[in-house]
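Run: sequence + EPU -> complex structure.
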Amino acid sequence: MDILKIKGPTKLFGSVKINGSKNASLPIMASALLTEGKSTIKQVPFLSDIAVCSELLRHLGCKVERDGDGNISIDATTIDNTVGEYEIVCRMRASICILGPLLARCGQAKVSMPGGCAIGDRPVDIHLRGLKALGAKIHLRNGYIIAKAENGLRGNEIFLGGPFGSTVLGTANVLMAATMAKGKTVIESAACEPEITDLAGFLTKMGAKITGIGSPRLTIEGVKQLKPVEYKVIPDRIEAGTFMVAASITKGQLKLENCELEHMMAVVDKLRSIGVIVEAAKNGCEVYRKGQIKTAELTTQSYPGFPTDLQAQFMALLALGKGNSVIIEKIFPDRFMHVAELNRMAANLRKEGPAVIISGVKKLVAAPVMASDLRASAALVLAAMAAEGTTTISRVYHIDRGYEKIEERLNPVGAKITRENI
Ligand code: EPU
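>> structure
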């Protein structure tokens, strides 16, 4: 098992290139299942989740190859298996994304129920509701979702809203399935996240007929066949936001290249409100701070609201704010595993239901801490770079799921991070 040792406090200065988006790549890779032939997806990050997704597609019969430049080619000419096994799905929840395309292409799919994780229960009832509305017969047995559409899928009007708003991967699943359903599908309360817009861009290039892209109402005219294509995924807005916090928390200055500020308005607005300067630059931005971090009230929401995937990182930053801040988590109300760990580093955080009250402290102090999920571990890395002393973070496989070689990205700009295998 790897651990990270992070010596602080450090200041980060220099330039970082943002990688392609993990959460855009995963459903786009799954949608390659919709057609025979070889699709090439560019700017795919080198992450363990991408490796798991490649393994899953290979199990289904696809030929998946990747080169050293971030291109992944997926040849889905032959699909000789329609089962997403528990052993793979339990390693990556986004495996559920194969359900929609397998149903559309093969008329059947059997996929392990993903189950909960460190950030909450994470049900998939809305995915199933949407696919049922398209005519799929679905039942659950022995922990598996068994879906059949022997006579093909049929377009329908589908409301996809749930108790916490829209669902990102649920929208992806229903959208992918609807591209080849007979007739017209309207998805109301579709997720508007840039990753869904990117998926719709990929599907459109394949020949799908989708209107309303980027809005909560997607209209899809089913087509008989799609074709394989080449496509470049968007830059990772969550990675970019994490590096923005890295510049802010260390009181350094980072230039972020390949950063799409258009996708980050809520994040940039929040940073500016607490005294961080974010200046647009060619193909990216400069981020730095002059004074002390101010306080904030922050509520996570579906896009274009503030993303839940940056909640933990902002909590680390606001822990050093001048006064009291509040963070309310409206997407995953239990996504607070980082609270106790940040408190071990001398933060002053108090959880009250789906909210955390943050009493700003003057400094953070190193401690041994444990990563619990991907974004929580990013928050610990950020806090550790600002804290006094050497922090040890265990279970760093969580961070490798979403950040490509984090120490190799941060050390060239001034961080002091070593990885040890224990
Ligand atoms: N929900 C339901 N029923 C469903 C589906 C979702 O009640 O059938 C609820 C969830 O429990 C949650 C809310 O709806 O309360 C939103 O969940 P959503 O379905 O949008 O999450 P997801 O699609 O499973 C993706 C990202 C997450 C990100 C969320 C929210 C990928 C691979 N994952 O998950 O990313 O937090 O959207 O934006 O795209 C991460 O990258 O660290 C990560 C967890």
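>> summary
Residues 194-206 form the longest helix (13 residues). The chain has a mean pLDDT of 97.
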